[in-house]
Amino acid sequence: MPFTDSEIRALKVGEKMKDFSAGPGLRIRLEPAKKGGGKSFYGYMYFPPGGGGKKVWVCIGPYGKGPGKWTLKDARDEWVRIRTWSQETGKDPRELKKEERAVVVEQQKTPTLERAATEFLERSHLKRTTLKDYRNMLFDQIIPKFGAETPIKNLAWDAKQPDGKTGRQAILDFRKKIEGRGSKIASEKMLGVMRGVFAYSIDQAWMNEPNPAQSSRFSKAQHKPQPNPSLDWDQLPKFFDDLERNDPNAALVILLAVKILVMTFLRVGSLTPAKWDEFDFKKEIWTIPADRMKTGKSHKVPLTAPIKDVLNRLHTFTGETDYVFFSPRGREYQHVHRDSLNAHLKKMGYKGLTTAHGFRHLALTAGQEVLKVDHEIIQRQMAHSFGDKIRGYYDKSQMLTERKDFMIAWCDALVEQGLIT
Questions:
Q1: pTM metric for this prediction
Q2: 73-116: per-residue pLDDT in tens?
Q3: What CATH code is assigned to 5-106?
Q4: Does the 233-417 domain belong in CATH 1.10.443?
């Protein structure tokens, strides 16, 4: 009868080597005391199979728990794997270990997907938010799909995959799977990130051209961009009533963040990480650092009386922290998550009616139609790049005076529409 695990543990070292059954074709050997008295698993089978085969021994490894050791169950499973491989391939069972060691050595010499991705991120001059998005896509989806230790060259355009497809086909299949979940934009972003990693790998001579993630009119997701919905000016009174009623029972910091959003029409990624040290209340200016702006340049927001009123209410709750929109429940950040404002708008019943980004459309439209302000002033306050490259190079005017006048008129008009500060 094969030994059980408890019986193997109880084996005593002797002067001679001992050998016991541990399962079908599996033995546990106990070395003599003079050789250390170790316990190791060995499998045996006749190879080649048939009457003329010889008994071949394969070392599984030492008995025990922990790195490099084998429990009884694991040793039995490993021997079944080796024996099955030998029967299916017709190869000597001892060759499997040799082939696997050769693969490990080759992988150590050949850069892996994980290494290529890490170096690509380190050498990419990306904004902090973009870098974070790229890292999440790579390490949460792309690398788990293709394997961190996969040699990057194995994903080359014509490199054969285990299922017989090429690297190019594997990449496109992955993109189609993401698109099939209803994430067409995400699938294009994912393809773009992979394209960057592969371009870096090609530059390093780690893989051959062409880039397996290159885009074409045939490989692009069939997506038509949809504009962000936005409210009309005459819908604001009801919106502000709904905001004050707070049927979703949101935290006060969320409600006040929405009010700042409407008055400043900033992108949520620029708004929610706001810190108190960015505000100069004497000069009535909020300076948003460049790494939070899409343009890559710092941006100034004139502080009107209604904006300062809401900030003063926020300071009562979060003034002792670094963040204006501090969130004690934040897991990834110490501030309100950028998705929280859109989530609240949906809970208010405004899904399909407006998004956080929609207030930028409202400001540009109503600013011109209702307040009769020149579109250039509004767009500068929105931090849009204005004019051609030559003009942008020479024109350093920020039009702060005109922008402040617009912001005062804008916030006063919102209060007239029902905004409570």
A1: 0.55
A2: 999 999 999 999 999 999 999 999 888 887 766 666 679 999 99
A3: 3.30.160.390
A4: yes
